[in-house]
Amino acid sequence: MPATPHKSTQELTEVEHIMMSRFANRFYLDRAVDLEVITGILQAARHAGTGANIQPWRVYVTTGAAKTALTDAVTAAHKTAPGEYSSEYSYLPDPLPEPFASRRREFGAVFYGSLGIAHDDLPARSEQTERNCRFFDAPVGLVFTIDRRLEKGSWLDLGMFIQNIMLAAKARGLDTCTQEFLSRYHRVFREHLPLKCEELVVCSMAMGFGDPDWARRRPHMPKASIEEFASLHGF
């Protein structure tokens, strides 16, 4: 017989409410974020778990004229010669095995469907993809790097640091969207940001005040049940 889905009777904590309300927002208001808010987020995020206290992360935070110059350059590169740029690492394998491939297709159907963009409407999909280059018009754009000499364990630490930033931002009323897509334009980033040669661009992140209209009508991505990913023993 199939397992009965587990439903917790415990009241959610404030932290859990923040975790469950966070989503990848691709629509933002034209509203600046104060430097004090940004530094507060970074102050909290730096306490992320990290093996042997390596703290392998670096983050470049851009806004205003600096962000505009960066996004203009990335957009120009994307429009003129996208094939000349590629990430320094592989985010997903090709081909993507199941059940991951099905989940990826489901995401595309749900997200683009919510925007009224058909599967075969390539111009509209391309236009939406190009919005990555502008950090989805969010007022703040972050670029995350890691020392290329480090191993996979340190990438786990970087992920916890990025997650801390997303949660600390949400706690302050801000939305975020991490972007692996822009890692392919690392050469452009190097022309505008003081990256050292050993720094590898892992991803970027849009951050700002999310558009409340989109928040009300956005689709909720299906998540796997506990029974699908957890194996509990000895309870």
From TrEMBL:
Its cofactor is FMN. Keywords: Flavoprotein, FMN, Oxidoreductase. The keyword Hydrolase does not apply. One of its GO terms (molecular function) is oxidoreductase activity. Pfam families: Nitroreductase. SUPFAM superfamilies: FMN-dependent nitroreductase-like. The keyword Ion transport does not apply. InterPro entries: Nitroreductase, Nitroreductase-like. Residues 20-208 form the Nitroreductase domain. PANTHER family: NAD(P)H NITROREDUCTASE YDGI-RELATED (PTHR43673), NITROREDUCTASE (PTHR43673:SF2). Belongs to the nitroreductase family. This is Nitroreductase.
